[in-house]
Design goal:
The chain is an alpha+beta fold and about 120 residues long. It has two domains: about 90 residues, Alpha-Beta Plaits (2-Layer Sandwich), CATH 3.30.70; about 35 residues, no CATH class. The strands form two sheets. Strands 1-4 form a two-stranded antiparallel sheet. The two termini are about 30 Å apart. This is 4Fe-4S ferredoxin-type domain-containing protein. One of its GO terms (molecular function) is 4 iron, 4 sulfur cluster binding.
């Protein structure tokens, strides 16, 4: 179940809001998403997987933790955004690396364009 949206790490990109299948989040007044409907969380980890800033923590259980987790402890243990890393998404990904979506594709004539920021793979 979603437990933390880190205000310090969040870049207000709304990826978590967009990918959540049950609408758990609402955009906060300052742009940082709020956990508005925690009980609707299906523990699917989509929000954590898509977060480019490792600002989320989803506990691998279907019910809220008895005590709110300590964000500093989770960050120190590398657990914020750990699901994304476990599935191999975006090794070394940073907010500016979201342009990297794959290898350059050939144009209609079969030529592959020279590397540019929009077609460089970051691994």
């Amino acid at each position: 179940m979603i437990e933390i949206v880190s205000r310090e790490r969040c870049i207000a990109c709304d990826k978590c809001v967009e990918v959540c299948p049950t609408g758990v989040f609402e955009r906060g007044p300052d742009g940082v998403p709020l956990i508005a409907r925690q009980s609707d969380c299906q523990t699917c980890f989509m929000c954590e997987a898509y977060c480019p800033a490792d600002a989320l923590f989803v506990a691998p259980r279907a019910h809220p933790l008895p005590e709110p987790p300590d964000e500093a402890d989770l960050a120190g243990r590398g657990l914020l955004g750990s699901y994304r890393r476990q599935i191999g998404w975006g090794h070394g990904r940073t907010p500016g690396a979201l342009l990297a979506v794959g290898p350059p594709l050939p144009d209609a004539g079969g030529a592959v364009p020279a590397a540019s920021p929009a077609n460089v793979i970051i691994s």
